[in-house]
């Protein structure tokens, strides 16, 4: 019987060729775990042809496979090189913004800016 649907993996790799889809996929994996992040990055590299990614990143293809495994441990420079080769970059954001604490000095008082004070007239 002929196969009427694409294999899940084939469809995934096809979708991951789009940088925006790849970024969403990697961010979702990063929220899950470090291991999932590396595996997701590997999926995106495979979607873009691992040998081309390796050449652009300046890393051997076999090394990328090892680095981007569940037990991989890429160096920062290798990770940045791979991300650049995939047209992606890292971003940092705050987990939560702490509420500003009121100082004892300003409690119950209105603070006046120095520019709002009257300038004394010379006699």
What does the secondary structure layout of this molecule look like, with pairings?
Elements: H1 8-15, H2 19-32, H3 34-47, H4 50-57, H5 61-67, H6 76-85
Which characteristics define this entry?
single chain; 123 residues; 0% strand; 50% helix; mainly alpha; 434 Repressor (Amino-terminal Domain)
Structure explained in plain terms:
The protein is mostly helical and 123 residues long. It has a domain at 17-88: Orthogonal Bundle (434 Repressor (Amino-terminal Domain)), CATH 1.10.260. 50% of the residues lie in helices and 0% in strands. The chain contains six helices and no strands. The protein has helices spanning 8-15, 19-32, 34-47, 50-57, 61-67, 76-85. The longest helix has 14 residues, at 19-32. The protein is elongated, with a radius of gyration of 26 Å. The termini are far apart. The model has no long low-confidence stretch (mean pLDDT 84).
